[in-house]
Amino acid sequence: MTAAMQSTAMPTAEQHGLKAHSDGAGSFVPVQTRSERFRSVKVADFEPVTGREHEWKLSPVAAFADLTGGELDGSRFEIEATDVSGVDVSWIGRDDARIGAAGTPEERASANAWSTFGEALLVKVTGEDEKVATITRSGLGSSPRAAHTVIEAAPYSRALVVLRGTGDARLTENVEILVGEGAQLTVVSLQEWTDESVHLASHFARIGRDAKLKHIVVSLGGKVVRLNPSTHLAEQGGDVEALGLYFSDAGQHLEQQVFVHHDAPNTRSRVTYKGALQGEGARSVWIGDVLIGNAAVGTDSYEQNRNLVLTDGTRADSVPNLEIETGDIAGAGHASATGRFDDEQLFYLMARGITEDEARRLVVRGFLVEIVQQIGSPELEARLIAALEAELQGS
After folding, report:
1. Does residue 97 sit in the same domain as residue 168?
2. Is residue 357 located within the same domain as residue 303?
3. Domain, as residue range, for 379
4. Does residue 390 share a domain with residue 269?
5. 288 and 250, same structural domain?
6. Do 163 and 106 have their domain in common?
7. Same domain as 373, residue 267
8. 318 in any annotated domain
9. How many domains does the chain have?
10. Would you give per-residue pLDDT tens digits along the chain (395 residues)?
């Protein structure tokens, strides 16, 4: 057989295109899912923030560069705590075993706070009776600060803990929430900062066997508020309700990146965030990530985000995501909607003698109050409804 005949009878791999391509070889592959994100408690392990990173691309990073990369004051600060039996508030050192038990920073601002804080504020909940405790931070000032808080609910304990921020602040912080077996804990994070304040927060929650956490974020004040709650349903029967309420005015940026990790059998999660926007430059960001791990059989999960646009010149970003690693689940779903007033609702109210302005306030109040009414404290609910009414006076 000649060389020419051999070439015809036995085609080479190159003739069929079976050779390695160099296109894209060694190129960077971006993180595709929330579960793949890098984590570290050391700020030096993270690259400087540019705004092009997946976790920062919707955030006004120039407004808080001092919190992501600058020096922070991590010293103890003044707090005001209600005196309630079964809720003890104290300070603990960085070497306490509870620190780091709920989670690890996924981004530079969180790691900067973790690397800097001197002592952590501990809120310890015990006792099976219902109780309400409020911890208020109001004197943080305008210098960049770091903080770390641990909220620990003992097994079978019950409580509602309100973590409230008022006054001036430039704060980056981490909040760890440990919910023991059979405990039922509600944590309300209430942002009522002044108009020029900036608050970056990462909340990490670990939920024990047959325990339930209701986590509620209420963001009303502050120029930039970015609060990202992550919940780890680590043991069988764990349950989380993650609720959020925000009202963004002109020039205000309110952001939430929610992560729920189902990591054990027969766990349940419900995520509902609602927001309203009014005024030129009002901005909201909501990203909802749910991971159902391969061991989380019987998972029941649903997340939703609803935004009500009250004026022109606003922007609402809403991105729900589901990552499912097992098909043996009870259910999983998500929904997202952004829209203006319902004209039929307005017409119905105005046809009964209600003015257009009052009708609009009633529609917005009805839209948002659903979240407020799930807090479980009549006094706090009434105060927040009054605060919403005050926000609406400008609509």
Report:
1. yes
2. no
3. 341-395
4. no
5. yes
6. yes
7. no
8. yes
9. 2
10. 444 444 445 555 555 555 555 555 566 666 667 778 899 999 999 999 999 998 999 999 999 999 999 999 999 999 999 999 999 999 999 999 999 999 999 999 999 999 999 999 999 999 999 999 999 999 899 999 999 999 999 999 999 999 999 999 999 999 999 999 999 999 999 999 999 999 999 999 999 999 999 999 999 999 999 999 999 999 999 999 999 999 999 999 999 999 999 999 999 999 999 999 999 999 999 999 999 999 999 999 999 999 999 989 999 999 999 999 999 999 999 999 999 877 777 777 778 888 877 877 888 888 899 999 999 999 999 999 998 888 877 64
The three state secondary structure string of the chain is: CCHHHHHHHCCCHHHHCCCCCCCCCCCCCCCCCHHHCCCCCCHHHCCCCCCCCCCCCCCCHHHHHHHHHCCCECCCCCCEECCECCEEEEEEECCCCCCCCCCCCCCHHHHHHHHHCCEEEEEEECCCCCCEEEEEECCCCCCEEEEEEEEEECCCCEEEEEEEEEECCEEEEEEEEEECCCCEEEEEEEEEECCCCEEEEEEEEEECCCCEEEEEEEECCCCEEEEEEEEEECCCCCEEEEEEEEEECCCCEEEEEEEEEECCCCCEEEEEEEEEECCCCCEEEEEEEEEECCCCCCCEEEEEEEEEECCCCCEEEEEEEEEECCCCCCEEEEEEEEECCCHHHHHHHHCCCCCHHHHHHHHHHHHHHHHHCCCCCHHHHHHHHHHHHHHHCCC
What pTM value is reported for the model? 0.90
Both 166 and 301 in one domain: the answer is yes
